[in-house]
Hints:
Elements: H1 2-19, E1 26-37, E2 43-53, E3 56-65, E4 74-83, E5 91-101, H2 102-118, E6 141-147, E7 161-171, E8 178-189
Antiparallel strand pairs: 1-8, 2-3, 3-6, 4-5, 4-7, 7-8
Amino acid sequence: MKFISLVIVAIACFILVLSKESKREWSYVFLGIKGNSTNTSLIDTKGKAERISRGLYGISGYHTMHKDVLDDNYFVEVKIYCSFQGNDNLHLTPFYVPPTNVLVYANVYFKKYLMRSTSNCSNLPLFGDNVDITYADIPLNITLSRCLLNISDFPSFVQKGYYRILTSTYRTKPPFVNAFIMIDFKVDGI
């Protein structure tokens, strides 16, 4: 009987924790950003970590599509790696975006995780939850200026360590091109 009471109390505590908004238990520091393209005449991408104030860095850069390559053959893939020692011994985490059509990516992942972060520091448009992004809505020249990551929509708890986000954009039919952006950052747990 005592065991059943403990299980009920544990379940009640679990439900209580899930029902309340969790306090953010982590912070991050950008360490660097790199960008590259296999064909800069089609897509050119560059980025850098830019100092905003002491110990605070934002992302600046651009992703320019010189020809209209946005169609159903343009995909985005995001992989997140982690190292707990800070060396290059990175391991793939379970958090990733599989190869996804750019419109699906924009309407699902961009809206949920990145739109608030880029709203005041880029030329990317803002959309309501019920508005679908179309190819015409995506600018061919995307610029970022000292963007900070808004972590309010991310998990409340992230393990302390060094992380690398590798974002690849590519076409599956001619004209072929593959561009990537690699962002390194350090997460401090509280």
